[in-house]
Every structure is written in structure tokens, then in C-alpha cells.
Design brief:
The protein has about 375 residues and is of the alpha/beta class. The protein contains 15 helices and 13 strands. It folds into two domains: about 120 residues, Enolase-like, domain 1 (2-Layer Sandwich); about 220 residues, TIM Barrel (Alpha-Beta Barrel), CATH 3.20.20. Helix 6 packs parallel to helix 7 and helix 7 packs parallel to helix 8. The structure holds [(2S)-5-oxo-2,5-dihydrofuran-2-yl]acetic acid and magnesium ion.
């Protein structure tokens, strides 16, 4: 059960449909595959999606921090010494996606070694989650067409609409078009990725007051401290903190200072070990949770559903588990399948997924 090596392999897979939102856009999944090897010959996997516009990480930086700092700190530890592993990698500041992928690959290796699913180790509450799909920026007709495609092809009926553009009517028109097209057969919420000010956000929310939104996410920056509190106090839907809560301490600060009333948990950002802490904290604080998407590929989505399905609080709401559908290909031997709006945890030990060696050879960018 001892860790013998930690590999960080960069790969690049183009998106067939790029995702655009207020803080950036993604055209190619330039992620890092992490593999944790043990002396029993077990290999645990996870992926790190760099998001420079949110957390400052790059693909090359993730490879470097794993190769230079995390791998040497972890080799020789037993897979069960997860808190030691966590403490050692926590000595390095920042780098949430790199830390999370290493953490989740250790859990995957542990599950494979013990021959149990990771979701069972985490909590084992259910084996599936309802799926929410993120709709990136486009004009109203294109966003409605995209939602139709997701509903007709995969049974998805929950949508997170990316907003935060100017003028705000550009976005409110999209949300209205979606509600007009689908009526109450779909659930809708919005995410501005900090694109609006507090007062623009309130204006937009008032324009959409009749559209029955479930949540509003990161409409304005958390650093606009008083503006954000002012906004959250005036809303009658939960305000989700996403990029403003990348640590448990951030969750405490944002919720206790009334700058947020719900939390997005992203396994790409807090792995399994820190996501457990965030989950327990959210439960103790009594705030709602949504399993978010850091524009994950299939490996990352398998991690998100393994965690989300493990607890009642995380599986109660639809999880953002479908954006891999916008990628042209992926690395798994058995692609994840969304049916009737649901994603099941892949059956099997660990994360229940297998990397296809031919696909990895095709998409890795460190060997030519
Ligand atoms: C989201 O919920 O904000 C966009 C950037 C990122 O890191 O995650 C996405 C989705
Ligand atoms: Mg968000």
C-alpha cells in the first residue's frame, strides 16, 4: 500500500463546442493526468484542469509542482496516511487543482487496493445524481437550441446559464427565452463569474423576478465586500459562492459574513479530502450545496459524481456533470453515459474508470 511514484502527464483534447463565460473561455482541455503508483502494482488516477483565470494555475505549472514538490513528499507514504499526505502537500500555498488531482488519485488507488468503490469509502449514500448542464455565452436562440439538444439527447432538465455580460439585458433575454421555450419543465439558475457589479446584479435579478430561478452564483466579486453583502441581503434565492470559496476557511468567512448563502463544491478544486471538510462545514452551517463543474473531462466528472453521490446534501440538487459532452474525445475506455438526465457512478472499485492507453498516447503532449 505504499506510494512508489506520482506521475503528472499533460494532455490536450479539443472541445467540439468551446465554453465561454464572464471570466474566460475554454477551447481545448489542456489538463494533467495524475497517476499514483503503489508497491502492489496498483495505479490510481485523477485529472487536474488548470483554470488560470480563476486560481492562477497553468498546465505546465501543475506538472512542475507535482514533479518537483508533491511527488517527492508523497513517495513512501501508505495510501491510508491520507492526512499526512494532505498536510505535506498543504505546505505549498495555492495550486488547488494540482493538490486535488493528487489527493483523488490516492483515494482511487486506495479503493482499488481495498477493492471497494471510492464513493462507498466517502459515504455511499446513492449511486447516481441528477445532471445540470452549463450553457455558455451565445445568443438566445443558440442557447435555447443547445438546451433542446441536451434535453432531447440526454434527458437533462436543469440548466446553469452563464451570465455576466453587458448590458445585463443580453443575459436576461437568454433566461427569458429559455423559460418561454420550456415553461416549468426545466429548472434554471445563473452564474455571472463575477461579471456584474452588485447593483447590476440586483437590476438583473429584478428583471428576472418572474422567471423562477433556483440560485444565483458569484454574480459580483466577493472582494466587493460591502456590495456583495448588500446584494445577498436583497435576494430571495440562495446566493452560491463558487470561486470565492476555494478553502474551508473561505466557506466560513463568506457564509458567516453573509456574502453567500449556498456553496459550490468542486472536487477539481478541493479533491476528496478537502471536499469532505467543505461538505461537513456546509452541513453544520446549514447552507445548500451544489456539485459544481470546473469544466471537467470524464475523469473529473467521475470524481465529482463519486463525491456528490456519497452524501444526502451533495446529491439533493442536480450536479454540474455534463460539460464533457462538449469535448471531441476523452481518455476513458468506457465513456460516461448520461441517460434520463442522470449520471450513475461508474460501477467498479476505486473510481470505476479505466484509462485507454491508445487515447492517452494520442493526446499526451509530453512525448512526440
Ligand atoms: C463555474 O461554475 O464557474 C468556469 C470557470 C471555472 O473554473 O468553472 C467554470 C464554471
Ligand atoms: Mg461558477
Amino acid at each position: 500500500m505504499k506510494i512508489t511514484a506520482v506521475e503528472a502527464i499533460p494532455f490536450a483534447i479539443p472541445y467540439s463546442k468551446p465554453l465561454k463565460f464572464a471570466s474566460g473561455e475554454v477551447h481545448t482541455a489542456e489538463h494533467v493526468l495524475v497517476r499514483v503508483h503503489t508497491d502492489d502494482g496498483v495505479v490510481g488516477v485523477a485529472e487536474a484542469p488548470p483554470r488560470p483565470f480563476t486560481y492562477g494555475e497553468t498546465q505546465a505549472g501543475i506538472v512542475a509542482v507535482i514533479d518537483q514538490l508533491f511527488a517527492p513528499a508523497l513517495v513512501g507514504l501508505a495510501l491510508t496516511e491520507r492526512e499526512v499526505a494532505h498536510a505535506r502537500i498543504a505546505r505549498t500555498v495555492g495550486n488547488p487543482a494540482a493538490k486535488s488531482a493528487v489527493d483523488m488519485a490516492i483515494w482511487d488507488a486506495l479503493g482499488r487496493t481495498l477493492e471497494v468503490p471510492v464513493t462507498s469509502l466517502l459515504g455511499g449514500f446513492t449511486d447516481r445524481m441528477q445532471v445540470s448542464h452549463m450553457l455558455g455565452f451565445a445568443d438566445p436562440a443558440a442557447m435555447v437550441a443547445e438546451a433542446e439538444k441536451m434535453r432531447d439527447g440526454y434527458g437533462i432538465s436543469v440548466f446553469k446559464v452563464k451570465v455576466g455580460r453587458h448590458p445585463v439585458t443580453l443575459d436576461t433575454a437568454v433566461v427569458r427565452a429559455l423559460r418561454d421555450r420550456f415553461g416549468d419543465s426545466i429548472e434554471l439558475y445563473i452564474d455571472a463569474n463575477r461579471g456584474w457589479t452588485a447593483s447590476e446584479s440586483l437590476r438583473a435579478m429584478r428583471q428576472m423576478a418572474d422567471l423562477d430561478l433556483l440560485f444565483a452564483e458569484e454574480l459580483c466579486p466577493a472582494d466587493d465586500v460591502m456590495g456583495r453583502r448588500w446584494l445577498v441581503e436583497r435576494l430571495d434565492v440562495p446566493f452560491i459562492a463558487d470561486e470565492s470559496v476555494s478553502t474551508p476557511a473561505d466557506v466560513t468567512r463568506e457564509v458567516l459574513s453573509r456574502s453567500a448563502t449556498a456553496i459550490s463544491i468542486k472536487t477539481a478544486r478541493t479533491g476528496f479530502t478537502t471536499s469532505q471538510r467543505v461538505h461537513h462545514l456546509a452541513e453544520g452551517l446549514g447552507v445548500e450545496v451544489v456539485m459544481g463543474n470546473q469544466i471537467d473531462g470524464q475523469i473529473g466528472s467521475a470524481c465529482a459524481v463519486a463525491f456528490g453521490a456519497a452524501f444526502p446534501l451533495t446529491s439533493r440538487r442536480a450536479g454540474e456533470l455534463s460539460n464533457f459532452l462538449d469535448m471531441s474525445d476523452d481518455l476513458l475506455t468506457e465513456p460516461l453515459q448520461i441517460r434520463d438526465g442522470l449520471l450513475r457512478v461508474p460501477p467498479g472499485v476505486g473510481l470505476g474508470i479505466t484509462i485507454d492507453p491508445d487515447k492517452l498516447a494520442r493526446y499526451r503532449t509530453d512525448r512526440h
